[in-house]
Structures are given as structure tokens and as C-alpha cells.
Amino acid sequence: MRIVALVSGTGSNLQAVIDAVRAGDLPLEIAAVGADRPGTRGIERSAEAGLETFVVDFKAFASRAEWDAELARVCASYEPDLVLSSGFMRIVSAEFIARFRGRYLNTHPALLPAFPGAHGVRDAMAYGVKVTGCTVHWADAGVDTGPIVAQRAVEIRPEDTEDSLHERIKVQERELLIEVLRGLAEGGIPSVDLPEQSPGADDADQSRR
Ligand code: GRF
After folding, report:
1. Hey, CA dihedral for 74, 104, 6, 62, is it positive or negative?
2. Of these four, 41, 72, 81, 173, which has the most CB atoms within 10 Å of its CB?
């Protein structure tokens, strides 16, 4: 299984995937890691790991459609079996989803369908839920929507800050992501046949967090 991973930030979840592949615990090939902006830690650590990297800088394009088309083109050039959004903070178009239909996997730090969007951790705390968690799902053209593959619960402690909770969620998120990728690579988890997309996404940026 060949994957292209997309990151916007620190890429600590991706690092766990890189480590698992290197340790021989995850039978997949990371064909490339891409970002939507230059200078991210995620790209830096991928390069340090000797992986091929690319940046399709959102700000360098005149329109979202042009950026999105270029991102799809570059991803497709690696002929991936799966595109992984690992803390990729931009919503891609219905065209992108159609091109990688049922092959675009996202992780989110909340128990979807609760608390989608850019502030899943903060929103769960603000609501006052006592249990939140993380979700790995096939992304469709909505904001953190699409068929759920796996979830894990994480308790919210009275003393939690957004950061402390997010860090505890990420510990679970990394394990869950590796478990799902292993299941997909080994065939234990079936792929999905997503229906043709009706464009559901608004054009919001930074919606996955
Ligand atoms: C993860 O919690 C992911 O679900 C969310 O952003 C975080 C990415 O963290 N969208 P990192 O860049 O892997 O450290």
C-alpha cells in the first residue's frame, strides 16, 4: 500500500506512522509527504526521515480551485492507494474527493459526528462533555464527515486544558491511526465504496483540528 500524507502542522501523528513503518510494524510505503504551506515541522521531520516531500502553497495560487487542482495533480503523480490527512488543515474540493474517492483518510480529535471542525478539542471542553476522543474516517466533501472507520474514547479530567487534553487524545489517535492503516494494508479493514459526492463542503479553511 502506497500512501501520500498531507500535513499542515507539527506532524507528530505522522511521525508515529513513520516510526511504525521503519520498525517494520506497518507494511506500507510512504511515497511522499505534502503540505499546504512552507516551513512546517511536519515537512521538516519527513525530510529528516529521508522521505520525499512537496509543498503546494495555498497562498501562491490565485484561487482555491487552482490550488486544489494542483494538490490533486501532485498527489496523483505518486499513484497512491491512499491519501492520508494527518493534521491537514484545509478542506479539499468535491473534485479532489471524487478523484481519491474512498481513498482519502482523515483523523479528527473528537468523537465524530460530535465536534467537527477546526476546534474539536476546545468545543468538546466548552460543551462540558465528560468523554471525548478521536476518529479515523474516510473523508467526503463535508467538514469532518464521511464513513467512520474507528474511534477511541478519552476522558476529560477536571484539570485539563485544551493542550493537555489534545496531547492525551493524540496518544490514542496515533495508536488508532496505525491500527487502521495496518488493517487497511493487510486487508483486515475493507475499503469503502463512497457514493458519488454531492458537494457538501463550504469553503471554510482550517476546519480540521
Ligand atoms: C491531530 O489531533 C489531528 O487530528 C488534528 O490535528 C492534530 C495534528 O497533530 N487535525 P500533529 O500535526 O500530528 O501533531
Report:
1. positive
2. 173
